[in-house]
Specification:
Helices cover 36% and strands 17% of the residues. It is α/β, with parallel strands linked by helices and 540 residues long.
Length: 540
């Protein structure tokens, strides 16, 4: 062995763990790490603001199943990244964040940009630590990769004092992290399935982390073989082909009222990987933690999640893919097919577009784009009322065709689209964003252009924070306060970033804009929406 500076040790350990891409906003606090990356074939996506960079890293983790890697500098850089870490924690996405820190000798003196990261990040991540010895870098990095992927995945933070990174050490590398996965006894899986099938009104609810294309195929096979209905949780609609006759919709914001009632009426739930939080249960009103009044069979990779909100009737510590794999060839048939057929009919009826005001209607836009790119595109979005149209009217087919924050974070769609195109350069990537949502991470258009990322951004422009306005009208009708927006000229803005802008003022304008986007490049397509449209079901 020979001595290496801490940044080189860090970069070598990333390569050993199979890292091929990192996201960053550079800072002088981790210059040695940047130097270490110089010697590796690890792409560094240099972003414009740490919040966008963190969301890109989080989306990368969603898309690949491997920890998204983020580098940010001390103080403002670290605190700017907090929004993306919150997404990763709520969405159960593996992520490792390296934060520059002041020198060890200067700590606890209120040094320039000093932050106590253990105190700051502790509520937002699975684990946060600060490395105090250069020789222990491999140990800390290995632990970070293990924790980020173990049980319920999530983000971890390692603070790196600049003198620890620049110091020399002679230390061996550690092998790549390989988190242990619980095996599933097929007989045990069969027993849980048999118990579910004994009920008259059961539901399978799929969601949570650790899914795969194979898990999607296994879930579809299980639904076909048994006749059981399958719902998914918020922004997990790509866990099953929406064309499958047993798919009945998503338990999310703005869910089908008939699906909500069906969740309430169900006498048994097989929960595959999901936590059944506030969004899936409409504020815990559809499923009362104190008295769920139904059989709950909970499959989750983290034992700490089982029983944390809902007391299960039975449970299994395992990933949903492992459980589904164990059920291959399982026996049993649901004896009340009318329950499934009625639920599917409710979903099909919910898919029929409901007319909203204006020359450009979101229900028409989303349905046109969904049909045009069926089975090909990867769709991203942030948060806002426009997203309710995306969820309701997009038909997802393949696994990982939907990338969106279950945390409901605005600004997510654009950074996620950049990460998605980098991960899948052969697929069309369509980003949906509201005018308010887009402007929170708009500067990352520069990142897209710098790295040659060809994406199409559909901007739902209604001149307001639509979700807040909707709630405002619910609680304080007619008293508009703090929800109006001034917007830039998005066509000119696209040109300023080296892309192409398109203004859609009638639905007939959309296909020509998409034709142009399909030729490649960065395209912003602005939809001029009627501001009286509040949601998929309500207008002023």
């Amino acid at each position: 062995m020979s001595k290496r500076h801490g940044g080189k040790i860090l970069a070598d350990q990333l390569a050993i763990n199979g890292v091929t891409r990192v996201f960053s906003v550079p800072g002088e606090s981790f210059l040695a790490a940047l130097d270490g990356l110089y010697d590796h074939d690890i792409q560094n996506i240099v972003c414009r603001q740490e919040g966008g960079a963190a969301m890109m890293a989080e989306a990368h983790g969603k898309l690949t199943g491997q920890p998204g890697i983020l580098f940010v500098t001390r103080g403002p850089g670290a605190t700017n990244a907090a929004s993306g870490l919150h997404v990763a924690m709520q969405d159960s996405t593996p992520m490792v964040v390296f934060v520059g820190q002041v020198a060890l000798a200067d700590r606890d003196r209120g040094a320039f940009q000093e932050v106590d990261y253990r105190r700051f990040f502790s509520p937002l991540v699975k684990w946060v630590a600060e490395v105090e010895t250069t020789a222990r870098l491999p140990e800390y990095i290995s632990r970070a990769f293990h924790i980020a992927q173990a049980g319920r995945p999530g983000p971890v933070v390692l603070a790196l004092p600049e003198d620890i990174l620049s110091a020399m050490a002679d230390v061996p590398d550690l092998a790549p992290a390989k988190p242990a996965m619980a095996a599933v006894d097929p007989a045990r899986a069969q027993a849980l399935l048999t118990r579910l099938l004994a009920h008259a009104r059961p539901l399978i609810v799929a969601g949570g982390p650790c899914w795969s294309a194979q898990a999607q195929a296994d879930l579809e096979a299980l639904a076909t073989a048994t006749g059981l209905p399958v719902a998914v949780t918020f922004r997990r609609q790509d866990y099953i082909d929406n064309a499958h006759p047993n798919f009945i919709g998503d338990l999310g914001v703005g869910m089908n009222p008939k699906l909500a009632q069906r969740l309430r009426d169900a006498d048994a739930l097989l929960i595959l990987g999901a936590r059944m939080g506030e969004t899936a249960t409409n504020g815990y009103r559809l499923l009362d933690p104190a008295a769920p009044a139904k059989t709950i069979l909970h499959i989750h990779p983290d034992p700490d999640e089982i029983g944390s909100v809902y007391q299960p009737s039975d449970s299994l510590v395992a990933t949903a893919p492992a459980f589904l794999a164990a059920l291959q060839g399982a026996k049993g048939q649901f004896t009340n097919p009318d329950w499934t057929h009625a639920a599917r009919a409710d979903y099909t009826a919910w898919q029929v577009p409901q007319d909203t005001p204006g020359a450009v209607k979101m229900e028409q836009v989303v349905r046109l784009i969904s049909d045009r790119y069926a089975g090909r595109a990867l769709f991203t979005n942030g948060a806002g009322n426009y997203a309710a149209f995306v969820h309701r009217y997009t038909r997802y087919h393949g696994y990982r065709s939907q990338v969106a924050p279950t945390s409901g974070s605005m600004g997510y769609g654009l950074p996620a689209a950049i990460a998605a195109k980098l991960a899948h350069p052969d697929r069309p990537v369509i980003c949906y964003a509201g005018d308010g949502c887009l402007q929170m991470t708009l500067q990352e258009l520069s990142t897209a252009r710098q790295f040659g990322v060809d994406i199409t951004v559909i901007i739902a422009n209604n001149g307001r924070y639509g979700t807040i306005r909707m709630h405002q009208e619910n609680h304080y009708p007619g008293r508009v306060s703090g929800t109006e927006l001034f917007n830039p000229d998005y066509v000119q803005l696209a040109a300023a970033y080296g892309g192409t802008g398109h203004l859609v003022t009638a639905i007939d304008d959309l296909n020509p804009a998409l034709d142009a986007a399909d030729q490649g490049g960065l395209h912003l397509i602005e939809l001029r929406l009627d501001p009286s449209m509040l949601s998929t079901t309500r207008s002023l």
